[in-house]
Amino acid sequence: MPPHTKKRHSSTLRSLTRPKTLNKLLRGRARKPPGLPPGTLTRTERPPGDAAPHFPLQIAVMTYDEAGCRETRNVSAREALALREPGKVNWIDVEGHLDPETVQFLGEALGIHPLVQEDILNTDHRPKFEDYGTFFFAVLKMIEFRPESASVHIENVSIVLTPDTVLFFQEEHDDVFERIRDRIRTGLGGRIRKLGADYLAYALMDAIVDHYLITIDRLSAGTENLELEILDDPHTSQMQQILGLKGESIVLRKAILPLREAFTTLQHTPADLISKNTRIFMRDVRDHLDQSLENIDTLREVLTVLLDLYLSSVSNRQNQVTYTLTLVATIFLPLTFIAGVYGMNFKYMPLLEYRYGYPVAWAIMIGVAGGMLLWFKRKNWL
User: Fold this and answer.
1) Cα–Cα distances in Å, from 351 out to 105, 113, 143, 195, 342?
2) Angle at the Cα of 342 (from 336 to 348), degrees rounded to 5?
3) How high is the pLDDT of residue 2?
4) Which of 46, 138, 210, 307 counts the most CB atoms within 10 A of its CB?
């Protein structure tokens, strides 16, 4: 692997050791005050230490059919509802930090249950699907690998599907749906302009799920280089990298596993708003979710092996150091004995007054040390 590639993967992995994502997973991102009646709409506050920015609210509307498309951006909630056209597919895209007033206004106009409005405001909700008869509600987690920060970003997404409208909520302005918008604008590259709102909802969910695979692949890309680093020179930062990747895999699994369960339930539950043709495409999304979970499990197994490899490498390195120190101490043990004997203050001692006593003592010590080294070599201890 080229050195510049190693350096890039190494810096990417080190940045993934940040505890932000895992801490966010453990404590949740937003909580409403306890004890309120069901369906109460409140602005949920982020927990202390969560410095995620609040994006200003923006609403865009796309209205289209097979004949054409009209797109309007930066409108109010009232204008968004007025821009809907009967007989066409209407996509109301609400981006940014949600406020209860906007959610309540749109919800009441489209006949959305207050409990669903409450779930839309809860950006820490578990992924799920719910069929209310007159509308269909879905919660997903949009996961994206951001190269500029070399980290995994998680964003809550809520989708409300009515017979002719898709009401879409996301926390930030940047998303992964620009290709879908281009397909709607141009009418090229598929059947999206020919089918209904349920196919648009499928396309949005499919784009989200496809990015799960991309994110997992990018996380897995550095494990090979990390293995080489551990074998070459194990150090403490590698343990932090492995634990950071394990934390990211836990977050990914938490986002994907409930969604797969929801798709499984959807396949076996009749939903009038989702046509038979669209259900066929939903199976493909379920397959991608299965593949994502398999890749996550593989990544976690690889990380477990890397952790064992790191601990074994560190243990072997410590054993090698201990082994070397033991050999040195063993060699110096008889030399220390000889020096100690001739360091005693007795008047009558062999070679004490001999003219060549000092060189003889050195010769004995060197001979003992050399003999021990030869013996160690013959035993294959060196």
Assistant:
1) 107, 105, 82, 107, 9
2) 160
3) 46
4) 138
The model's pTM? 0.72
Q: Please report which helix (H) or strand (E) contains residue 142, including its range.
A: strand 136-146
- Please, which residues bridge with residue 306 across strands? none
CA distance 248 to 226: 16
**Tens of pLDDT, residues 44-80:** 555 444 545 567 888 999 998 888 889 888 988 899 8
- Residue 11 half-sphere exposure toward CB, CA atoms < 13 A: 9
**Which token pair is 243?**
């634990």
The dihedral of CA 245, 248, 250, 252: what is its sign?
negative
Alpha helices by DSSP H, the chain: 3-15, 20-27, 77-82, 100-110, 114-121, 178-186, 197-220, 223-232, 236-267, 276-341, 357-378
Pairwise CA distance, residues 156 & 140, whole Å? 6
Q: Which residue carries 């495409």 as its tokens? A: 281
DSSP secondary structure string for all residues of 32-87: PPTTPPTT----PBPPTT--PPPPPPEEEEEEE-SS-EEEE-S--HHHHHHT--TT
Neighbouring CB atoms inside 10 A of 221's CB total: 15
Please list the residues that pair with 70 across neighbouring strands.
63
What is the DSSP code (8-state) at residue 354? -
